[in-house]
Amino acid sequence: MPERQLDRAAVVAATQEAAALAFASWRAGAAADTKVWEKSKNNPVSDIDMAVDAFLTTRLRAILPEAAWLSEETVDDPSRLDARLLWLVDPIDGTRDYVRGRSGWCVSVALVADGLPIFAVMAAPAQDKIWVAAHKEGVTCNGERLMGSTRLDFSGSRVPADDLPKLDADLVTVTKPNSIAMRMTMVACDRADLVATLRWGHEWDIAAAHLVAQEAGGVVTDALGQPIRYNKRKPLDFGLICCAPGIHDAAVERLSGRAAQLLA
């Protein structure tokens, strides 16, 4: 199996070093010490995003040269579609929090095999946390094994959100980091029960957190409740549901009408 051939310690070390590189320019409560521009409206990127991407490209490809590469800050190489193994990386997920001096950002690294994440490392140095997950082997945060939310009642579910629509008034808001991956770890750490979106999102945003949440007992699907596969020609999925298994069906039902309108 490819995951048995992987030098996992080297992947963890590379992710930690990449996180330290980003952390060196982060300023708590203030603008980061880096040049920032917008790739598109409300989609900031910084010199540090690019530096972390370059660092991880070199280190991870040296660890497993046969794996193809897909990341937020690298031009997509379509030859990846012929590869069984793929590094799927977001150098800084939550750039908005990063550049504003907030702690809700992370470095996100996943190794995908045959369309599924099999090993993942997420490092959030501003929160002094690192998650390591392996397929069918569980997940740890700072070395402690995780067991995620086991909620059974949809009403009252904790959702990382600034506010909620009136249709969802029966849910409970909790603190929301900018990073979607960091929100998903909240389900894995039993600090939230549900993360849901109804927008098209990129594979690199969620691949590592998908495995983290899954190995903690969570369910991760698109907004329609369908499984998510990685290394697609267009690396996009419509929406996300990451939640406790006992509320997944209810979450799909709750979102179904809105999803249908958006896709019409």
From TrEMBL:
UniProt-annotated binding residues for Mg(2+) 1: 72, 92, 205
InterPro entries found in the cross-reference section: Inositol_monoP_metal-BS (IPR020583), Inositol_monophosphatase-like (IPR000760), Inositol_monophosphatase_CS (IPR020550)
Binding site residues for Mg(2+) 2: 90, 93
Domain of life of the native organism: Bacteria
A GO MF label: metal ion binding
Keywords per UniProt: Hydrolase, Magnesium, Metal-binding
GO biological process, one term: signal transduction
Protein name in UniProt: 3'(2'),5'-bisphosphate nucleotidase CysQ
Species, as recorded: Sphingorhabdus wooponensis
